[in-house]
Amino acid sequence: MRLDFYLSHVTDLARKAAKIAASKGRVTVNGVVVKKANYTVQEGDQICLDDVLLAWPSEGYYLLHKPAGYVCATQDPDHPTVLDLLPSHLGQDLKIVGRLDKDTTGLLLLTTDGQWLHRITSPRNACNKRYRMMLADPISDADLKRLEDGVMLNGESQPTLPAVAQRISDCDIYLTIQEGKYHQVKRMLAAVGNKVEELHRDQIGPLSLDADMQAGEFRELTEEEVAYF
Ligand code: URA
């Protein structure tokens, strides 16, 4: 990558200021002053600005308890976004791992690591997501079975993939799905003639939302949790 791009990524300097810093001889690569902003930086190069060794920031992995009312987008003209819940210095390069609707609460992952994000969201990896929901009407065992076997969603040509449905009470169920189609859970319940009134995600793969975490709180994932995916 170009030297000015590298500098603008790992320091507070904007691209233009990075070019000027280099042209003034403030930057060394492996101990040699490099004044050209288009110099190609290689992996393993020791790059210093004003004799301070720079390091490419390591990837960030975060778990957020999403509250209702926040949209999963980097910007929105009308609503607060989930990135508003994290300190702005973390938010810059963070990508949202899958989307939850504005009114959905629960476990949301954010990361700077595009490959990790892809491993979780790629349909090929069939990563399970568990949702708990309150329904408008009591649901029958037959309809739970239909949800498990696969239902045809409006506008789709294939039924949903096998899922796991567990009853908690008449109108309160868990549904674990391996896909992530647009509004999938709400559309699945609509397909069996019901309506989701409240939706909360509490698991993604082997990762669960912390029981003591309040809506709006976030934390960094441990190395072990990052390695789940
Ligand atoms: N399915 C939905 O319908 N909404 C969500 O937010 C997540 C899954």
UniProtKB/TrEMBL annotation:
Main EC class the enzyme belongs to: isomerase
| Keywords assigned by UniProt, alphabetized | Isomerase, RNA-binding
Annotated signal sequence is: none
Protein name, as recorded? Pseudouridine synthase
Which family does the record claim for this protein?
Answer: Belongs to the pseudouridine synthase RsuA family.
The yes or no answer to whether the keyword Glycosyltransferase is present is: no
Purpose: Responsible for synthesis of pseudouridine from uracil-516 in 16S ribosomal RNA.
